[in-house]
Design goal:
- The protein has 95 residues and is mainly alpha-helical.
- The chain is built from 4 helices and no strands.
- The chain has one domain.
- Helices cover 44% and strands 0% of the residues.
Amino acid sequence: MSNLRKKLEEQIIEKAMKDDSFRKKLIDNPKLIFELETGINLPETIKIKILQEDQKTVYLVLPPFRGDAAEDELTEAELASVAGGTGWGGPGQGS
């Protein structure tokens, strides 16, 4: 996981832990709220799913299998581009 992604996730999680209204919006529409909070427009092919832990359930999130090169993963340059608000820039996505 890139440092940028980790930082963005931490900021959103921290806000969701303090603001119940924000948390509900994030659960209802995670991709939209992520985009609004970060200013990053994600490709249509990217999905965001929210999992809430409770006292009896812990989730372990595995990254994509890397047996073959992860061709759908954003590169550091692509992440830097979207973080700067210039768009994703992938094939057919505009810049």
